[in-house]
Design a protein that fits this description.
Layout: E1 2-6, E2 9-11, E3 33-35, H1 37-53, E4 57-64, H2 69-78, E5 82-87, H3 96-110, E6 114-118, H4 129-137, E7 141-151, E8 154-160, E9 166-172, E10 175-179, H5 191-197, E11 202-206, H6 238-252
Parallel strand pairs: 1-4, 1-6, 4-5, 5-11, 6-10, 7-10
Antiparallel strand pairs: 2-3, 7-8, 8-9
Length: 256
């Protein structure tokens, strides 16, 4: 079985996030980058599937500048067989549709049996890439998988729904699945794995060779919300007090 795992490099949870001078993104010079935490669970699930079947190939695929090769190497150190780097030069692409088009162009050539993605990225948090890729590849797609079972070229998934409900779905491979965080315990790279990762292949594909259509979605401004404290004591008759509370909820807090 040939499995692709899409991983993203995002700012670490302990990293400072200063806004750049143009106000369009964070100043990367002050940021420490790590593998997107939800993608760790997708990678671990791919490795468990491969180990359970006794054979197969796990390929880590990531898009970004040169620095993303660090997270690709981390995936290789954990047990993935090789990596694919979709290299970006210049501003980092944030439009989910264009990102999915570029991934799809690479994935089509590889003929993967299964494409796994994390629930969402910790930076933009859009959670659309896996679903869009499944549609573009023309394969069955499922989200929020908390359990997987592969038999006879079919995959059976347990999906997490709202209010504590779950759903079992089954469909043929190839397929695209987004993995819910917490369904497994991601492993740490071993010393042997770290040393072995240095010899594993990372194929680089330039974004200029892929889809460069115009964005459907863009980020206009990134800023730190300004907060302020304000207290108001509401006195008077009950009817007047209720009327003032409703006015605050409607016009100031805007919850009704």
């Amino acid at each position: 079985m040939k499995i692709a795992v899409l991983v993203k490099q995002v700012p670490g949870p302990e990293s400072t996030l200063p806004i750049n001078d143009s106000g369009t993104w964070v100043d990367e010079a002050s940021v420490t980058f790590v593998m997107n935490p939800p993608d760790n669970f997708a990678l671990e699930e791919a490795l468990l599937i491969k180990e359970g079947k006794g054979d197969g190939e796990v390929v880590v695929v990531s898009m970004g500048p040169d620095r993303v090769q660090k997270v690709i190497r981390e995936g290789l150190a954990k047990g993935a067989d090789r990596g694919i780097h979709i290299e970006e030069v210049g501003p980092i692409e944030k439009d989910p549709l264009l990102i999915a088009k570029r991934f799809t162009a690479v994935l089509k050539d590889e003929n993967f049996d299964l494409v796994l993605t994390g629930l969402q990225s910790d930076d933009t948090g859009m959670g659309q890439t896996g679903v869009l890729i499944g549609e573009m590849l023309g394969v069955p797609t499922a989200t929020l998988a908390v359990e997987t079972d592969i038999k006879d070229n079919r995959i059976r998934l347990k999906r997490e729904l709202e209010s504590g409900w779950f759903q079992w779905v089954e469909f043929p491979l190839p397929a695209s699945v987004s993995i819910q965080s917490g369904l497994n315990t991601p492993r740490y790279p071993s010393l042997k794995g770290i040393m072995g990762a240095k010899k594993k292949e990372i194929k680089t594909v330039s974004c200029t060779e892929l889809d460069n259509s115009s964005n459907s979605q863009s980020v206009d401004k990134v800023f730190v919300p300004q907060t302020s404290k304000h207290s108001e004591v509401i006195d008077g008759e009950v009817d007047a007090a209720v009327e003032r509370i409703v006015e605050i909820l409607r016009s100031e807090i805007k919850v009704i």
